[in-house]
Amino acid sequence: MKLEELRDLYIEELRDLYSAENQLVKALPKMAKAATNEELAEGFEEHLEQTKGHVNRLKQIFDRLGKKPTGKVCKAMEGLVAEAKEALEEDMTPEVLDAALIASAQRVEHYEMAGYGTVRSFAKLLKEREAMALLQQTLDEEAATDKKLTKLAVSTINIDAAHEDDEEMDDE
Description:
This protein has helices spanning 6-34, 38-65, 75-89, 94-125, 129-171. It is mostly helical. The protein has one domain (6-164): Ferritin, core subunit, four-helix bundle (Ferritin, Up-down Bundle). Helix 1 (6-34) packs antiparallel against helix 4 (94-125).
């Protein structure tokens, strides 16, 4: 597809995000199931519900544009999900696994924040005010999720994983 105008790029970027969000809808339940920290598992489940809302917001934008949301596969999200899946297959202590899950989740959140920030800026330039508000709402939720993950990592999970390392050194 030839992209001749900013609107064309905007639609392609929205399709990329739609694909990314749908991939996450499939990945988050697996991450929640793998998490050993209850708060982390609950956070993944909560973000799954938010992600379903993100998909619905994108559908609303596409309905207003009179375009279909499908037709593009987000290869970046495929890679991020594949990396998270690899982490699940590694031989790790539960504490280290939770730290790895947060690391994977934060890479996803940062990718999404970059994408949503971009399309929100495009929507502003294209005078798509309703879309801009919906995209900002999603961007705010992604940023809040990232902050929650950071707080959980630095207050509990990474500390538990570090103590696991201390215990292994004591055994030697």
